[in-house]
Design a protein that fits this description.
alpha+beta; Globin-like; Arc Repressor Mutant, subunit A; 3 domains
Length: about 400
């Protein structure tokens, strides 16, 4: 137990009847602080921290803060517990410290509201300094506890959390998913995204989005890894919190990453996993980048029916692939380039370092071999789909 105000200041505190009345009304004060936290922080409104837990944390801290203000022995244990629990709930450090500022302001406003006209203003001003000194002490302990818990968590139960995440994403059983949700301390409702990264070459860190960025954005991340796949679930109280993470993801990824559509209920987690996997497969093997489900709808359609797509590509392109490998590669690369530049023979010629007439002649040869003339929208579409399916399915 610690001692509150100094002997010189204790008299001012004990002569303040408003402080004693406030201590007697601790439940009223607790309700006020909880209301302010829920009003001013999206994270608390989302239910990431259960209301009962939040209420208990606030009350226990206020009891000790008011004891310290009254010059009585007090404990910093509630601050330590707050730091540990907020880390367990993946609440950002900024939100943890903001809660203490909101609580301190509420205490001070209630004191000012309750003082009578007879109160010496000098004593009140002196006490205000003590209020914020005590709040700073509690928030420092909470922050230290938060950091220690985060360090311990990162070293600890990674395998268990990975198994829980897989249960949440892949299980068809409602009970299994619910147990996993509770173990991961995830809210029933919120804003979520699933990430799937294909480890083509065994990358050590295919999703190098730092924990600092995630915490600053108010986003909780959960990861699971297998031999050839890295899965993630991002959780935030609002969709806007996910946007800076997605921007960073597009810029730093070292693998093929697919991102699901946002969803608000974990009942849709399995569907989101399928979306993320399809999106990742819509990037060609060896590519690096992140693509969201729905950004390339044709590619997703092709990889969702990979075997029929491969068979179709083999059939359509058979007259070309039967040629000498050099000729076959020359024709397919010409067609792919022509489509990539929007059907311009001139721009395709620039990209291929040849004459425009050469491109036209090669396209004519493709038409002669396959019966598909790129001047016909229907034929052009069939040829493009076959070429794209060839790229996505690895057909050579």
């Amino acid at each position: 137990m610690l001692t509150g105000l100094s002997a010189a200041d204790r008299g001012a505190a004990t002569r303040l009847p408003a402080l004693q009345r406030l201590r007697a009304d601790i439940d009223v004060l607790t309700e006020r602080v909880v209301e302010l936290l829920i009003e001013r922080e999206e994270l608390y409104r989302s239910g990431v921290v259960p209301t009962d837990d939040l209420h208990l944390l606030v009350r226990n801290n206020l009891v000790e803060i008011l004891a310290a203000m009254a010059g009585e022995p007090y404990s910093l244990s509630p601050a330590d517990v707050s730091g540990r629990q907020k880390a367990d709930y993946s609440v950002p450090m900024e939100t943890l410290l903001h809660a203490y500022r909101i609580g301190g302001l509420a205490v001070w406003e209630e004191l000012v509201r309750r003082v009578g006209p007879e109160q010496d203003p000098a004593e009140l001003v002196k006490l205000s300094t003590q209020v914020w000194s005590i709040i700073d002490q509690f928030s420092t302990v909470a922050a230290d506890s938060y950091r220690a818990t985060m360090r311990s968590s990162s070293r600890g139960d990674g395998d268990a959390r990975s198994a829980q995440l897989l249960g949440l994403l892949e299980s068809a059983e409602t009970e299994t998913r619910e147990r996993a949700r509770q173990a991961l301390r995830l809210p029933l409702e919120g804003s979520f995204l699933v990430i799937a990264a294909w480890l083509d070459e065994g990358h050590a860190e295919p999703v190098p989005v730092g924990e600092r960025l995630l915490r600053a954005a108010g986003v909780a991340a959960y990861w699971a890894r297998s031999a050839d796949e890295h899965l993630g679930l991002l959780s935030a109280p609002a969709a806007a919190r996910l946007e800076p993470v997605l921007v960073a993801l597009h810029g730093v990824t070292t693998a093929r990453i697919g991102v699901s559509l946002p969803f608000s209920s974990l009942d849709h987690a399995s569907s989101a996993l399928e979306q993320a996997r399809l999106a990742a497969r819509s990037l060609t093997a060896g590519a690096r980048g992140a693509v969201g489900y729905g950004e390339e709808p044709l590619d997703v359609l092709l990889v969702s029916g990979e075997r029929p797509a491969a068979e179709m590509a083999a059939r359509v392109l058979a007259p070309i692939t039967a040629l000498d490998p050099y000729d076959a590669e020359l024709l397919t690369r010409t067609a792919e380039t022509w489509f990539a530049v929007g059907g311009s023979s001139g721009r395709a010629a620039e990209a291929l370092h040849c004459h425009r007439n050469t491109v036209i002649n090669r396209l004519a040869r493709i038409a002669s071999l396959t019966g598909l003339d790129v001047a016909s929208p229907r034929d052009a579409a069939e040829l493009y789909v076959a070429l794209r399916a060839r790229q996505l399915t690895g057909l050579r």
